[in-house]
Amino acid sequence: MSTVTFSAHDLKHMERNFRRELINSVAGFKSANLIGTADENGRTNLAVFNSVVHVGANPPYLGFVLRPLTVPRHTFDNIKAIGHYTMNAVHADFVEKAHQTSANYDEGTSEFEVCGLTPFYTKAHPAPYVTESHIRIGLKFTEQHLIKANNTIFMVGEVIEVMVDESILDEDGFVALEAANTVASVGLDAYYQPKRLTRLPYARAEGKLAQ
């Protein structure tokens, strides 16, 4: 297998769309999540993100990255307005609908409605969940950090509610994502069906690798 090498000069001067696809995909598989929000008038918004990351487990925090606020960002505006949002795993049976939420709809349009997904609420959380998802997380906005390198924003939220289909929850708390046909995302438009290879024991310095 031959290798193609791109220098810093190559990256700076290459065709814009090629560079975008290259950098978005070379980092590998990422989770695909629908972030659900609502504004102060109860109008719902839904958008697919592949930048969700684990921040901490005790207490539980998750983060995600927002693009620069050079144009209206309804997800950001709604989170700042009501202080809550949801993250909902994307599964294979509605991946096309989830992808469609990335379209640039106007502020008065609900992606739930136009993309054929169903919102629902719990007593503990004012932001909308996605009924079709088997893994749903309710979060309370905690803090934001400007990434000065490119003006993107890292949003951090405290996990205050988790809903997981009982059939995919292992006895030790591990969520078997593949059992729910959860998809992974690469770049801006590619989706994959991951398969678990194994679960390994906790790595210790005094341990030995199996031969």
Automatic annotation (TrEMBL):
InterPro entries: Flavin_Rdtase-like_dom, Split_barrel_FMN-bd. Pfam families: Flavin_Reduct. Gene3D superfamilies: Electron Transport, Fmn-binding Protein, Chain A. Its cofactor is FMN. GO terms for molecular function: FMN binding; oxidoreductase activity, acting on the CH-NH group of donors, NAD or NADP as acceptor. Keywords: Flavoprotein, FMN. Residues 29-170 form the Flavin reductase like domain. PANTHER family: FLAVIN REDUCTASE LIKE DOMAIN-CONTAINING PROTEIN (PTHR33798:SF5), FLAVOPROTEIN OXYGENASE (PTHR33798). Belongs to the flavoredoxin family. This is NADH-FMN oxidoreductase RutF, flavin reductase (DIM6/NTAB) family.
